Amino acid sequence: MRLNPKTSQKIMRIVLGIATGLTIFILLFIIVFMLSKGIPVLNWEFLSNFPAKMGKAGGILPTIIGTFVLTLVAIVIATPLGVGAAVYLTEYIREGKITKIIRFGAESLAGIPSIIFGLFGFILFVVTLKMGWSILSGGLTLAFMILPTIIRTSEEAIKTVPYSYREVSFSLGATKWETIKKVVLPNALPGIVTGIILGIGRSVGETAAVIFTAGSSLRLPSSLFDSVRTMSVHFYILSREGISMKNACGTAAVLVIFILAMNLTAYWIMHKFTKRNL
Amino acid sequence: MEVVAELALQNNSMNNKISVKNLNVFFGDKHVLKNINLDITPNKILAVIGPAGSGKTTFLRCLNRLNDLDPEMKFTGEILFDGKNIYQGINPVELRRRVGMIFALPIPLPMSIFENIVYGPKLAGITNKKELNGIVEKSLKDAFLWDEVKDRLNDPAMKLSGGQQQRLCIARALALKPDIILMDEPCSGLDPISTAKIEEAMRQLKKEYMIIIVTNNTKQAARVGDYTAFFLMGELIESNETGKIFTSPNDKRTEDYISGRFG
Question: What family name appears in the similarity comment (chain A) (predicted)?
Fold first, then answer.
């Protein structure tokens, strides 16, 4: 029997509506669940004190600093490399086999599970290059991991700059580099920044790649060669080893709030960018 | 730098002259311009007319070597500017400072009115604030835009109307004190009043510059052109004083195009 179009229309509307509703519900459920478990733990002491008894008591200050420093190192390394590669791919070489291969490589790199980056970083930086579990090993590993994201978003941002701007710039006696510096990059900047923020978002929450390479020391680092523990590694250890589920949720809540804030910032920048260009 | 000096010596535009000799241009396998020979006189306006795809814009873009940006472009022949081949021993960046270009659509760069105009001069190495202010005022006056924008030079150029934007683009090209101004259908996106203003500006500008305008509008060619060149499918069919082209063309095809039988 064939359903009449009116009925199938109604049914599909309901089915699609449920799919949307469920998606939103799951998202909200996760966030509300984590925050409701975690927020009661949060207070100034939790954020500003050192952990005591392996994290069973005390705060999470070193893990916040560890997360921050590691992400900073990753971004400082990945941004110039990624943006540079994106400029080269879009402005200096013609669309063809080579760009396709490079782009395919970058996309595949983006799809590799982070634990593989972790293992790679462990073997290369920690063991072979004798950097040990350190901010530098972890930062480099994270940089490699987020590089494809930064390249892709920067490339897209650069491509949105109208070709006519480049022609105008050339017609006014600019060289290629002057055109890139004065016209292309400034106009692509909001998109590039969004890519960097996405990279930060990935680095901040990364666990597998970091636990292999940056270690899990709870001391405050004093150099790039010191080991640090990030927030995500911290609550992984807290919950896995049954040290304190309560503090694990508290740490997770801090992380969730931080990532939400990052994404909102990225969204805001994107919004401002699109509005300005209309 | 040697090249700049040589070109600068010839800056007395009374003697400037362009000779195009046996110019052929290819994009990939496509033969876009076929054996063009043309002399262009200073202080006159040359109007280049012809139907779409006749190679007018390509011809224009040869004169400031903007076609170089397309790696598929190949050419033979020569373009002499004051007797010097612009494709030999001349840095295209320097050439483009001497040859300004106005595009079909007004394309202000997304920065302030002031910044748009000083874009070229700054790249050319002018940093003195006073000098830059002078350049901005003179260029805007020459483009008949000064009175409309003098109180808001720091506003985004995008906020201007279409006609104002196009005059801003003219001012921006003038800021480099070029010898030649190329215009690629500069009024195609403008209303009649804005068009009239641009044409008025052109009549004033030809006193100091050589102007070459590509236009789809034969009436515009008749209004502003001292000379007119008719292109068809990559060939230069004929070029002559505008009056002659429009009253007694030598070639049947020119007559057909001008009288609106095709195009």
Answer: Belongs to the binding-protein-dependent transport system permease family. CysTW subfamily.
